[in-house]
Amino acid sequence: MKKKIVAGTLLLLVLVSAVGYFVGRGKEIINHNYVFVGAGEYWTAEYTVTAKEFFHEKNNRTEYSSNSTSEIKLIYSRELTELSELKEISYSFKGNAGSESGTEALTVPPKSKEVISRSSSGNGAFERKESKIEVTVEWQGKKETFYLTAK
Question: Which secondary-structure segment (H or E) carries 100?
Answer without folding.
Answer: strand 99-105
